[in-house]
């Protein structure tokens, strides 16, 4: 039998937003990531001083339920740690600008868009193609111990380089990073999530990316935060 850590990760580069996918908002409410057995909240952006990022993490109800299911499928002694979920447009813009300042060319939108969704230009774009984290259906998650201490999966959160790519360690058969990334990947897929090829920690459910991954025409989640004029 193939186990979660023996099965390879094979994924085509993710295109976001995927073409040809519409949005049909289902109206599902948000819930806080708190008090869920096996799922720990570690609000990374708040802890890093992103001014617009709050100290609490929210996700759509079904996303949180799916995380609970994923955690229950993990081996004993391994839990899930959620770094981020719902973001306002202010938070998204601040994260994007912070990343731009680290680039040799701050105007390099191709590199920015590989790792972060650019803030929409107008309300129409926001409605038609909301950034995944504004929907409450995108989650940044990793593995941790039962005390919430994160395990080392071979790259830091928001380490925007090749080490963060989902399959970066796939060719290293001796790598503990490969074993843990496979564990996270197959557990999250088993709970219904869609992966993101450029970040091992980013998964989506009910979003446009998730719809494309699962062969569906419409996303269930539109924007769950208000429009803000850039």
Automatic annotation (TrEMBL):
InterPro entries: A_A_dipeptidase, Zn_M74/Hedgehog-like. It catalyses: D-alanyl-D-alanine + H2O = 2 D-alanine. It comes from the Bacteria. Keywords: Cell wall biogenesis/degradation, Dipeptidase, Hydrolase, Metal-binding, Metalloprotease, Protease, Zinc. Pfam families: Peptidase_M15. Gene3D superfamilies: 3.30.1380.10. SUPFAM superfamilies: Hedgehog/DD-peptidase (SSF55166). This is D-Ala-D-Ala dipeptidase. It comes from Nonomuraea corallina. The lineage of its organism: Bacteria, Bacillati, Actinomycetota, Actinomycetes, Streptosporangiales.
